[in-house]
């Protein structure tokens, strides 16, 4: 224990082994849904001769876990930061639905594009370019990121709890707790979690997640709720039918066909180099700013930022996602990035790489029971996002709302994130508006050439993205 303490610097970061363990478990539970969701998305776009969709699903699940473990190991031992990493949501959907299914780019070539993106990230991180660009972010944007992510997390959590639902007239409205079993159980689980948190109970988030998941299974097994309502229907049938051991034994661990596909993709890059470059550019741009926003936002609630809103030695956690992306592409998954769910572990007191190490070990253990990960209902894990989202709103106090440039750039950063379901879009709104407002105020001299360049880069990015999304480009 003494060696672990000294290596990760528990005393220096005012933490201890128990706190770091609880923080790691919390982060893992909050982001473990990716083990099921990522293969569900990517397996729709990946076809391999001789293999059925369920087998491909399990291959991608294994690749998801292994790429996460690699990236988290770098985060733990090299960066010594309490952040979890895994294939990113949004980017996996872009990979599957836009690049492969819409543009017609072979999935093998799409993996090659992610690989090239990862190599570029490694090079830019090594020479300090990524750190330089992130430090160009206007101050109001840096200080608004945490609150923006907080509102985003709140929105995501309330949607999964079915408290916020779709509405044709207003886009969203309040769900009916009286008719939705998920909403009713989620409200109770959230109430327990908030009470425990307010009373300062250590591990309140973990306790809330576990109790809610257990309650969902008890109500289902007792016949109060239909299978598929509070728990995953397929998992229920597999567990009650063949048993847990049969379920575990059914996993397809051989993911070498995905590696073979990646190698084939490298040989097809020259078939249409223009589209390949545009796909790499889009992956690169979204991942760059999503990761930057997440690192700054989560670091803000952990007290890791300096007086300028910068994260010291940010190039180290950036290297973790760069290596994870590169390795992930080689073994068959989309871009790996830092997860906003890391904020749940930071809120529980995680301050060092040991928190990340716990997350990585739990991902590794989950290899033994890939199908069982779906036994944890997603709404139960999303309760944590609501609690952490509320806590992260404290970031609005760091913004000078009397200064028009701060108010506009910060306000847009905070609101655009949840409304467009994108951290990078929120950053874009703040970064593009800041120099324009400063110039309008007669303070253009306060805007650096680099900040103008960032704003212009976002304009070019959106022009490219909209062209790709509209189908103006095809492979």
Textual characterization of the structure:
By secondary structure, the protein is mainly α. It has one domain. It is built from 21 helices and four strands. It has helices at residues 2-8, 17-31, 34-42, 53-79, 91-102, 107-126, 129-135, 139-160, 181-198, 204-221, 233-241, 244-249, 256-267, 273-302, 315-331, 342-347, 353-365, 378-392, 404-420, 423-440, 449-469, and strands spanning 85-87, 164-167, 171-174, 336-338. The mean pLDDT is 90. This is AGZA family xanthine/uracil permease-like MFS transporter. Belongs to the nucleobase:cation symporter-2 (NCS2) (TC 2.A.40) family. Azg-like subfamily. Pfam families: Xan_ur_permease.
List the helices and strands and how they pair.
Layout: H1 2-8, H2 17-31, H3 34-42, H4 53-79, E1 85-87, H5 91-102, H6 107-126, H7 129-135, H8 139-160, E2 164-167, E3 171-174, H9 181-198, H10 204-221, H11 233-241, H12 244-249, H13 256-267, H14 273-302, H15 315-331, E4 336-338, H16 342-347, H17 353-365, H18 378-392, H19 404-420, H20 423-440, H21 449-469
Helix pairs in contact: 2-17, 3-4, 4-15, 4-17, 6-13, 6-14, 6-15, 8-14, 8-18, 8-19, 8-20, 9-10, 9-18, 10-18, 14-21, 19-20, 20-21
């Amino acid at each position: 224990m003494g060696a672990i303490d000294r290596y990760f610097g528990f005393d220096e970061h005012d933490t201890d082994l128990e706190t770091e363990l609880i923080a790691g478990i919390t982060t893992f539970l909050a982001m473990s849904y990716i083990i099921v969701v990522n293969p569900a998305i990517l397996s729709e776009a990946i076809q391999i001769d001789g293999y059925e969709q369920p087998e491909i699903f399990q291959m991608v699940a294994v690749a998801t876990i292994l790429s996460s473990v690699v990236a988290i190991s770098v985060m733990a031992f090299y960066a010594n930061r309490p952040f979890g990493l895994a294939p990113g949501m949004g980017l996996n959907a872009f990979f599957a639905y836009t690049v492969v299914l819409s543009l017609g780019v072979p999935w093998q070539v799409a993996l090659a594009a992610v690989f090239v993106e990862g190599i570029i990230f490694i090079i830019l991180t090594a020479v300090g370019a990524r750190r330089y660009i992130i430090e160009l972010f206007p101050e109001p944007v840096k200080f608004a990121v945490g609150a923006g992510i907080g509102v985003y997390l709140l929105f995501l959590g309330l949607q999964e709890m079915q408290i916020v639902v779709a509405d044709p007239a207003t886009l969203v409205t309040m769900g009916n707790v009286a008719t939705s079993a998920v909403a009713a159980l989620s409200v109770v689980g959230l109430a327990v979690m908030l009470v425990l948190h307010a009373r300062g109970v250590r591990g309140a988030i973990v306790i809330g997640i576990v109790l809610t998941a257990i309650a969902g299974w008890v109500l289902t097994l007792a016949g109060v709720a239909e299978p598929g309502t509070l728990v995953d229907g397929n998992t229920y049938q597999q567990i009650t039918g063949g048993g847990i051991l049969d379920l575990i034994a059914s996993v397809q661990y051989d993911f070498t066909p995905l590696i073979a596909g990646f190698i084939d993709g490298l040989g097809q890059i020259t078939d249409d180099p223009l589209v390949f470059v545009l796909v790499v550019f889009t992956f690169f741009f979204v991942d760059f700013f999503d990761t930057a926003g997440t690192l700054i936002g989560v670091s803000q609630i952990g007290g890791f930022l300096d007086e300028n809103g910068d994260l010291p030695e940010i190039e180290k956690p950036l290297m973790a996602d760069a290596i994870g992306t590169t390795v992930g592409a080689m073994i068959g998954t989309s871009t790996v990035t830092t997860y906003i769910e890391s904020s749940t572990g930071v809120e529980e007191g995680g301050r060092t790489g040991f928190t990340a190490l716990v997350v990585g070990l739990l991902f590794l253990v989950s290899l033994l029971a890939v199908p069982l990960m779906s036994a944890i209902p997603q709404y139960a894990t999303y309760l944590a996002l609501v609690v952490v989202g509320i806590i992260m709103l404290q970031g609005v106090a760091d913004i000078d709302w009397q200064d028009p440039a701060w108010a506009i750039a910060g306000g847009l950063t905070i609101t655009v994130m949840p409304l467009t379901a994108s951290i990078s879009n929120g950053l874009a709104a703040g970064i593009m508006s800041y120099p324009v407002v400063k110039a309008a105020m007669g303070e253009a001299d306060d805007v650096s050439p680099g900040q103008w360049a960032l704003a212009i880069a976002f304009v070019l990015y959106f022009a490219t993205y909209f062209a790709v999304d509209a189908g103006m480009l095809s492979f």
